[in-house]
């Protein structure tokens, strides 16, 4: 689940923004460096978060509501994994309490979509964002799903967003800078004809849901903080098919729910997320499980660490089911 850098005040009409950094559960503190024991805890939490998405995959199909997906995830996290859904009741300053155990961001929803009673339809694209707390540690990840066949444009957006996330991941190593990650993501996505959302970013994760550093998905190489072994943070670019501008979702006469963000031009948006550890020699992706889509071929270290899963593969699914990774045409 991404951290907000800016928040719209009283809707887009006000033309004002407020910096959110100190309003989240981390108030501009030093970047935590995890110990070996901390990292073991984060590996477990990360694997569990990824396994929730594995479990949900066969249920992401036409006719199923996102509220049912939320119910299934909640039951699995609590009763099977013995964990806690981090989003349920989560309430940073200025927000209402989040009412669900995961986020389901559908089509033009950029992030923080709240599960509801509307059934999924063939052709929908949906991001499911899951964070599990296990033994006090947060495992945070998300995947894109295409319901049924999906359009060529939608499938390409999801694939390019997946690759954009990995373009950032492969930049992670001791001595690299956070700006290297953002620059790699931005240049790749924009060269493919897409735009990168600026108002939300990745974040440190550990004993707190949102820690330092903020991980921008755009920027200049050689800038911002220097990476050190033991840092753990999310990389989770939000990529739009149209322009990068976003707004609060105030569609129709219904009141704003306090969370849902959509593309201003109502174009499709996609997002993938992993929690990543800086190791002594590079990186290790912590949110990995048996059902995780394989890393793309350009990520020669795969998931890093001792996992080493690569190269790219396409997951096939029946026509009425969701494909967790789609290849570009």
Question: How would you explain this protein's 3D organization?
Answer:
By secondary structure, the chain is of the alpha+beta class. Helix content is 21%, strand content 23%. The chain is built from four helices and 19 strands. The strands form six sheets. Strands 4, 5, 7, 8 and 19 form a five-stranded antiparallel beta sheet that branches. A three-stranded antiparallel beta sheet has the order 1-10-11. Strand 17 and strand 18 (283-285) form a beta hairpin. The two termini are 29 Å apart. Mean pLDDT is 87; it is low at 5-27, 307-321 and 325-329.
Structural class: alpha+beta
- By DSSP, the count of extended strands is 19
How many helices? The count is: 4
Radius of gyration (CA) equals: 18 Å
The general outline is: globular
Which parts are unreliable, with pLDDT below 50 for 5 consecutive residues or more?
Answer: 5-27, 307-321, 325-329
Span from first to last CA?
A: 29 Å
Characterize the biggest β-sheet: 5 strands, antiparallel
Notable characteristics:
three-stranded antiparallel sheet; 4 helices; 21% helix; globular; 329 residues; alpha+beta; 19 strands; five-stranded antiparallel sheet; single chain
Provide a quick synopsis of the model:
The chain is α+β, with helices and mostly antiparallel strands. The chain has helices spanning 36-56, 66-80, 152-169, 178-191, and strands at residues 3-4, 6-8, 17-19, 84-85, 103-106, 109-111, 125-134, 137-147, 195-196, 200-204, 211-215, 232-235, 238-240, 246-248, 261-263, 269-271, 274-278, 283-285, 322-323.
């Amino acid at each position: 689940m991404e951290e907000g850098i800016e928040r719209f005040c009283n809707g887009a009409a006000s033309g004002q923004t407020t910096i959110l950094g100190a309003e989240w559960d981390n108030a501009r503190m030093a970047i935590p460096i995890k110990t070996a024991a901390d990292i073991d805890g984060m590996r477990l939490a990360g694997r569990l978060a990824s396994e929730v998405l594995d479990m949900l995959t066969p249920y992401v199909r036409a006719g199923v509501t996102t509220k049912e997906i939320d119910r299934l995830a909640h039951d699995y996290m609590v009763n099977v994994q013995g964990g806690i859904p981090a989003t349920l009741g989560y309430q940073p300053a200025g927000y209402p309490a989040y009412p669900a155990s995961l986020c389901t961001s559908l089509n033009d929803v950029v992030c923080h979509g709240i599960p509801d009673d509307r059934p999924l339809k063939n052709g929908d694209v949906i991001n499911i964002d899951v964070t599990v707390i296990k033994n006090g540690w947060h495992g945070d990840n998300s995947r894109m799903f295409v319901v049924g066949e999906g359009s060529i444009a939608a499938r390409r957006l999801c694939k390019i967003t997946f690759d954009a996330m990995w373009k950032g991941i492969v930049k992670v190593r001791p001595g690299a800078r956070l700006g290297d990650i953002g620059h790699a993501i931005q240049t790749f996505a924009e060269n493919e004809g897409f735009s990168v959302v600026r108002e939300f970013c990745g974040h440190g994760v550990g004993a707190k849901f949102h820690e330092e550093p903020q991980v921008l998905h755009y920027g200049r190489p050689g800038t911002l903080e220097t990476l050190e072994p033991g840092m753990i943070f999310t990389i989770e670019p939000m990529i739009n098919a149209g322009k990068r501008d976003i707004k609060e979702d105030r569609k129709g006469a219904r009141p704003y729910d306090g969370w849902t963000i959509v593309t201003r031009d109502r174009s499709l948006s996609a997002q993938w997320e992993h929690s990543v550890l800086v190791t002594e020699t590079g990186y290790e992706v912590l949110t990995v499980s048996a059902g995780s889509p394989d890393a793309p071929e350009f990520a020669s270290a795969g998931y890093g660490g001792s996992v080493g899963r690569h190269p790219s593969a396409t997951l096939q699914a029946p026509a009425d089911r969701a494909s967790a990774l789609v290849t570009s045409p």
